[in-house]
Design a protein that fits this description.
30% of the residues lie in helices and 21% in strands. By secondary structure, it is of the alpha/beta class. Strand 3, helix 2 and strand 4 form a beta-alpha-beta unit. The protein starts with a strand and ends in a 5-residue tail after the last strand.
């Protein structure tokens, strides 16, 4: 590919597509408000026989994500199902009953261990760590956790990262996520288990949900992912073997300001391997 252009409409890309795996934060909403045209685009795709699975690195179970979407005005009819990194993290906890957890994250993520055999303890007593985010993502960065992570490293604790995102949009700002803490721990030499994009299990779960809705499996050539992150959405889609529509209004918006077309050198610098197409914001 020698150039990569912006497209204006999703309808121009979904001929031969049966399943869309859409990111949520940065595509459907920005944490404070939903994007009506994006919601309508996904709803229209569904009305024409397609299946939409929302695939998110939210460190909460799918029902909690759904409640947030409803509060932001995203109708249930926008999608068929949700799969979250929080769901996969909960499976890990369920598979390790009786073990003690040191939890790093804000109180709003407490649903990560709701109803599970999970005992929360101080770091000194923990069998492993779960990180769903920063205690205060309005003011903190991963560096604020260096001393804690060094203590965890000394005890050789595994850190389970329930959100591999480094940053995410909140309105017009970028805030740090669990992935920033997890990457620092990995740099220090700690063992990290990541759940969510770009790692394969979340895509496998999404395709299983799509097969349940459609009554049969879907070939990967008939699947389109949508996302706004090179590190998670593009890398994850390419690794799983599916095309990606890259939405530029999200965390990389400043890099695409004023650009109408990318040449080969820019494509390599920004993406490495290019997505199928670019769109400033999702529209039908």
């Amino acid at each position: 590919m020698t150039s990569l252009r912006f497209v204006e409409q999703l309808r121009d890309l979904v001929g031969g597509v049966d399943v869309v795996l859409s990111d949520i934060w940065g595509v459907v909403h920005n944490g404070l408000e939903s994007f009506p045209e994006a919601c309508e685009a996904l709803h229209t795709f569904r009305k024409q026989g397609g299946t939409v699975i929302l695939i998110t690195n939210a460190p909460r179970p799918a029902d909690s994500v759904q409640r947030q979407l409803r509060k932001l005005g995203v109708a249930d009819e926008t999608y068929d199902a949700i799969v979250s990194s929080g769901d996969l993290t909960r499976h890990f906890v369920a598979d390790h009953p009786g073990q003690k957890i040191f939890w790093i994250g804000p109180e709003r993520d407490s649903s990560i261990h709701r109803g599970l055999d999970a005992t929360l303890v101080p770091l000194e007593q923990a069998d492993y760590i779960i990180c769903t985010g920063l205690f205060d993502d309005e003011t903190e960065s991963a560096e604020d956790y260096r001393d804690t992570l060094l203590k965890a490293l000394a005890r050789k604790l595994t850190l389970v990262c329930a959100n591999p995102d480094i940053v995410v949009e909140r309105g017009d700002r970028l805030i740090y996520c669990a992935g920033a803490v997890a990457e620092l721990y990995r740099e220090l030499g700690g063992e990290v288990i990541f759940y969510g994009k770009p790692h394969r299990p979340i895509y496998e779960r999404a395709m299983a949900l799509a097969a349940e809705r459609r009554g049969r499996p879907t070939e990967l050539s008939r699947v389109l992912a949508i996302g706004d992150s090179v590190r998670t959405d593009l890398t994850g889609a390419l690794g799983f073997g599916i095309d990606l529509l890259f939405v530029t209004r999200g965390i990389h918006s400043e890099q695409f300001e004023g650009i109408e077309q990318l040449d080969a050198a820019s494509i390599k610098e920004l993406f490495g391997h290019p997505p199928r197409a670019l769109m400033r914001e999702l529209k039908w």
